[in-house]
Amino acid sequence: MTAYAAVVLAGGAGRRMGGRDKPAMPVGGVPMRERVLAAVADASPRIVVGPGPAVAGVRLTREVPPGGGPVAAVAAGLALLDTDVPAVALLAADLPLLTRSAVGDLLDQLHRTGVERHDGATSASGAAVDGACYVDGAGRRQTLCGVWRPAALRTALDRLTVRRGGDVTGAPLRELLADLSVRAVSWHGDGPEPWFDCDTERDLRRAEGWMR
Known about the structure:
With about 210 residues, the chain is of the alpha/beta class. The chain has a single domain (about 5-210), classed as Spore Coat Polysaccharide Biosynthesis Protein SpsA, Chain A, CATH 3.90.550. It contains six helices and ten strands; from the N terminus they run E-E-E-H-E-E-H-E-H-E-E-E-H-H-E-H. The strands form two sheets. The chain has an eight-stranded mixed beta sheet, sandwiched between helices. It is globular. The chain starts with a strand and ends with a helix. The model is unreliable at about 115-125 (pLDDT under 50).
């Protein structure tokens, strides 16, 4: 598999679960954060952006300010990557059904040519892709279940920071990715979709059911 890093965003407030540490909630007896980290066990480095706890072999950092939103979290993760890292998986920490093979499929798609822009336009065949992420049955992009070129993310972050007067606190992820070229990847593997995220108790029960 192609060399890559992983940045796992774990700093959400978990409001729909009463403010609990959502990534620490278990599915099949294993915290969701640990399931996501297991799916990227071959990534180097692996970075968690959030309040912790510390995990062996994983770098822990926080967005500035804490709770500053997904773009601030991406910035914190990128700051820990060497400039020669060729790809980075950006992942939510509440994806209990994510697998190593699903991440591998995204990496394969990242290195293909001929891409579609985030706004739906198609770039020239042979152009380098900035990222690849899964899409659901309605065509919605699951941007926190994707892989990206760090250089493209850094350029996008610099532009967004300038547009927002130096502060990306509260900026939505779609604004960061708006100008990037991205390949939308459909899921054709066995089992449930790897981007299924658990925002509610009902979601947790559904994920548990799929694992039986």
